[in-house]
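Figure 6 in text form: structure in, sequence out.
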């Protein structure tokens, strides 16, 4: 039985219940356990002491569990909080997750599940601490194998810190969960984990969204001859194809509940049953999963199994959206311009400097994939003309955000209404900034001729 020196804080006004939890954790190897029955004492304790995880009751006198949860997550967000309550309500569970709870359990809590939840919470906190340690290095991050990340174009510190984290955890046999918005490049990160791991087997990707239990089993585990009508021979599943390598499961958040049970067994036991087989087969494939879904909320509503989530979260990589790393936009534009000209079989043309300013304030709902599509579309339309800021500003997606398509643009201001002269100066300045100083492009944005704009500038 493994032991841990991390302190687990148990907060419950019922002394007997709190002691029961303490006894369960003691039996699971947790040496340091602290019980607090008065919630008013909790914040002073967590401010003064290192805490690995907290078990928190919701219904308590003086201070409610919800209030205490908000205080803990505000002051010590690194401490995972597991909420325990008699209320078996989806609304309560979702509310707790939104307030920052790491997990949610109804009383009476199953002993094994309680112990596993605490162990998982502490492990995840340790992984987050690894990321924080790496983040302190900033530009000083030195990668052992930079070529592994060559396909991920970035100039962002956070991304480089993720690369360093991946190099650290890649050799581990544990599963990896990659999260991030659609279009951030989750499969590229999965391939980087595989390449950095040194595994000799192949990288095998599969999108599992919507696969029911039968199709999932046949796709991943294969089948034996006669397993069902039309099964005229044996067929290898993707798990066998990925032997010694990596099985990448994309869109894991949309996996059918029946299929989740099969995947959980694969991760727990490292074995599986092909359809129609009586004997289990061993798996030597490392599993990497990815999703853009909020798995915490899906757990609370019962759509996604908690135990599967714990297994997938052996290591966690969260990719930041493109809008949070604006320094990547110029380098990505440059890369996608070269890629687009090569794909179209055309000689690359010199682009105007400062093209990225055309995207000033753009939210990139589709992230890197959207930027790639915009650049390719603009290059396709440009013909023999070099790409300019005007080319991007005229693209429907950017024009729509700025109010050019579907309605008039809105001008916001604070204080008194500006004079016409002040508004004109502001609009000219804004147009020139968005077009990197190109007067012809700025005039088109303002709906005037270039000569009119020149007169206004010189006036």
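Output sequence:
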């Amino acid at each position: 039985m493994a032991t841990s020196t991390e302190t687990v804080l148990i907060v419950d006004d019922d002394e007997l219940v709190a002691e029961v939890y303490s006894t369960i954790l003691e039996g699971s190897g947790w040496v340091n356990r602290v019980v607090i029955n008065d919630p008013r004492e909790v914040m002073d304790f967590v401010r003064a002491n290192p805490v690995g995880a907290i078990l928190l009751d919701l219904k308590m006198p003086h201070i409610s569990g919800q209030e205490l949860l908000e205080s803990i997550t505000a002051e010590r967000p690194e401490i995972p909080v597991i909420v325990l309550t008699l209320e078996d309500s989806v609304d309560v569970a979702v509310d707790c997750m939104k307030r920052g709870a790491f997990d949610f359990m109804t009383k009476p809590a199953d002993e094994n599940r309680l112990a596993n939840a605490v162990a998982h919470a502490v492990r995840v906190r340790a992984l987050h601490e690894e990321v924080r340690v790496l983040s302190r290095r900033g530009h000083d991050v030195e990668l052992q194998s930079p070529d592994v990340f060559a396909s991920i174009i970035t100039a962002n510190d956070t991304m480089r810190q993720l690369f360093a984290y991946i190099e650290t955890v890649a050799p581990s046999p544990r599963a990896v969960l990659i999260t991030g918005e659609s279009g951030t490049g989750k499969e590229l990160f999965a391939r980087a984990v595989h390449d950095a791991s040194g595994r000799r087997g192949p990288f095998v990707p599969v999108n599992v969204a919507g696969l029911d239990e039968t199709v999932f089993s046949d796709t991943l585990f294969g089948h034996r001859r006669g397993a069902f009508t039309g099964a005229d021979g044996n067929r290898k599943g993707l798990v066998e194809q990925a032997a010694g390598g990596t099985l990448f499961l994309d869109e894991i958040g949309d996996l059918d509940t029946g299929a989740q049970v099969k995947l959980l067994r694969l991760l727990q036991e490292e074995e599986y049953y092909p359809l129609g087989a009586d004997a289990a087969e061993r798996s030597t494939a490392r599993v990497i999963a990815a999703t853009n879904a909020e798995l915490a909320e899906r757990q609370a509503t019962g759509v996604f199994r908690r135990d599967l989530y714990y297994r997938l979260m052996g290591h966690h990589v969260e990719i930041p959206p493109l809008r949070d790393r604006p320094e990547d936009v110029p380098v990505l534009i440059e890369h996608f311009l070269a890629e687009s000209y090569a794909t179209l079989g055309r000689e690359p043309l010199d682009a105007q400097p400062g093209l990225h300013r055309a995207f000033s304030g753009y939210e990139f709902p589709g992230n890197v994939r959207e930027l790639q599509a915009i650049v390719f579309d603009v290059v396709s339309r440009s013909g023999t003309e070099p790409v300019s800021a005007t080319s991007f500003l005229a693209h429907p997606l950017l024009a729509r955000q700025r109010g050019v398509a579907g309605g008039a643009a809105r001008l916001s201001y604070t204080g008194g209404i500006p004079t016409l002269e002040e508004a004109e100066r502001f609009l000219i300045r804004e147009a020139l900034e968005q077009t990197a100083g190109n007067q012809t492009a700025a005039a088109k944005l303002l709906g005037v001729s270039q000569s009119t704009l020149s007169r206004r500038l010189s006036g």
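Caption detail: The first helix runs from residue 15 to 27.
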